[in-house]
């Protein structure tokens, strides 16, 4: 006698599976790709977003494409943060742009050759050293700590800024020797206590990732390349 091992057809299960598949597709289709526009020019770039996703910051060409300006987008509207449009390279980390945004929507970046902090509609130059070139690349969740780079003409050094201390240079992985080897801070933890970036190592043998906390910069090494 031949035994039939064919599974029984269950139309309800099939209908349920199709319904779940359609629901998943509909949910995915509900996610939309939204263009944020420009400040009147041809191109724009979004570079950072707030913790809740409601504020986006970056850079945009101005009307006539004669330069770039930092922008802040919120509530469906892109607004220029001020400064003079720059016609130089827009590329990270030296281009004129908003590079970071705090959880409450405050913005940091680079404009008119200097690191800025924007909060409550006011853009402030936070370059409190010798007024050379600088750029702010990261900000803590509450906006109280800003990090980035400060240029002295031949290179750059990472900095950490607070309202109480001003701009403080973090030196480099060669030790606390000012203007020796370059370093740059790219990000900061939510509480402002940990700064990360890159620094040249002894003998200009390359640059390594670093982690700075409590006044100490630690070499994170590399993946075997140096």
Radius of gyration: 24 Å
CATH superfamily: TolB, C-terminal domain
Instruction: State which percent range the strand residues make up.
Output: 35-45%
For the sheet with most strands, the description reads: 4 strands, antiparallel
Estimate percent helicity.
under 10%
What overall form do the CA principal axes indicate? globular
Describe this entry's structure for a reader.
The protein has 226 residues and is mostly beta strands. The protein has one helix at 11-30; strands at residues 44-49, 55-61, 68-74, 77-80, 97-101, 107-111, 114-119, 122-125, 134-139, 146-151, 156-162, 166-169, 183-188, 194-200, 207-213, 216-219. The termini are far apart.
Considering the chains and any ligands shown, give keywords for the structure:
226 residues, mainly beta, four-stranded antiparallel sheet
Secondary-structure topology with pairs:
Layout: H1 11-30, E1 44-49, E2 55-61, E3 68-74, E4 77-80, E5 97-101, E6 107-111, E7 114-119, E8 122-125, E9 134-139, E10 146-151, E11 156-162, E12 166-169, E13 183-188, E14 194-200, E15 207-213, E16 216-219
Antiparallel strand pairs: 1-2, 2-3, 3-4, 5-6, 6-7, 7-8, 9-10, 10-11, 11-12, 13-14, 14-15, 15-16
At a glance:
The chain has one domain (43-219): Neuraminidase, CATH 2.120.10.30. 9% of the residues lie in helices and 40% in strands. 32% of the residues are buried.
